[in-house]
Predict the structure.
Amino acid sequence: MLEICKICGSSKTEFIGFKNNSRLIRCKQCGVIYVESPPSWDIIESRYNNDYHCYSEAVSLPKEIIYDYFLKEIKRIKGLKILDVGCGMGEFLELVVDNEGKPYGIEFSDYASDFVAKKGIKVCNQNAEGKFCYDSKLFDIVTMWDVIEHLYNPGKALSEINRVLKKDGFLILSTPNFSGLTRLLFGFNAYQISLPEHLFYFNLDSIKNILNKHGFRIIKAKSIHLFLTNFFSFKKNGILHNEVESKPKNFLLSKYLKLIIQNKIIKYFFVYSIKLIDLFLDFFKRGDLILIYARKVR
């Protein structure tokens, strides 16, 4: 049976493998990879219950890193209206508040949206693939942090994002990188291939294609990967400064790493080697996540 691409409508598609009894299809035209027959909405919705990891009040380390990059790139968000699509428990919107921006959210989970609303933040409890409850040309920036891969129809969400963005407004999103080093090393066993939650898979080329189709032009792309995440993890745990007092999660690795880097020469060799690897992987966009800054152009 001929499979038509769910993004560009091309019939030039190919089967690339199975994961959890689901067939994964690649479009030869636009490059996107997607689940051929995704689970019903009832099954998907049941996965996103109150225990789902994104509905934790704690901010994950990769998200902290992404948010840091956001602030470094945008620099000043004071007074800007920022919509976070799939805002979860509102941790990013709190950062917007802390930096004197004007936060708004969209979140389909009743539990999470109620939690955000209690913080005094405007949030619409709705699916990201429906018509947004906000007026056209309202926002300066729209963000989607690891959301686009979860959608049945990413194009619908991108069309609505385009509608609510002001002229020359920014869409900033992150998504797992199908061409990342971890995915290439571990194949369909890599953490990025997460079913039934992840229904679409992108690399830099395919995310560029879908964004162009919906009126956006990428102005900057960065890849974020495990080396960088681990480096920040060591730094946060105090290991790079010999400050560890409590037992961190990666205790065994931390213990031996701490012994190694007590020697200053070895420590700095380790740190800068990691940075060089980071730069190399980012240059070739082989990180585990891709972070996209795109401008509305039509």
Observations:
- The chain has ten helices and eleven strands.
- The mean pLDDT is 85.
